[in-house]
Task: structure prediction
Amino acid sequence: MLRLVKLASAGLVCGLVFTTPVGAATAPNTTVVNFDGPVRASGKTLAPGTYSFERIGAHVIAVSKDGRFVTLLRALPTTRVDRGPTMTLRRPAAGAPAELATWFYEGGTLGLAFESVAKAMPSLPACVSTGS
Result:
């Protein structure tokens, strides 16, 4: 049985908590996350549940739930000084779900900023689709 490790994130609101099972990261660029409330990701709302995030290209993340494809997300590389939570969230507007901001594989210092966070960054290649 997998143990669950709680992840803390500054800006978590409305009791939203996400966990990742120990050992659930089955590939070098895959992380399994459980959301107990709705979460927005690059303009798409993910219902509460367990999702797999897999980096499938330089700027592309495939999201699946129960082994079924959900969406593709665009992201740009980002860094931080210290290790921290695997996923970080942005504060939502009143009444809106929290929004995924970044994904740092295994809580490291190298990660990806999701599309809405990366808007101020250079454009992504036109061939990258968000699937939304």
Notes: Confidence is low (pLDDT under 50) at residues 1-26, 120-132. The CA atoms of residues 60 and 74 lie 5 Å apart. Residues 4-120 form one domain. The radius of gyration is 14 Å.
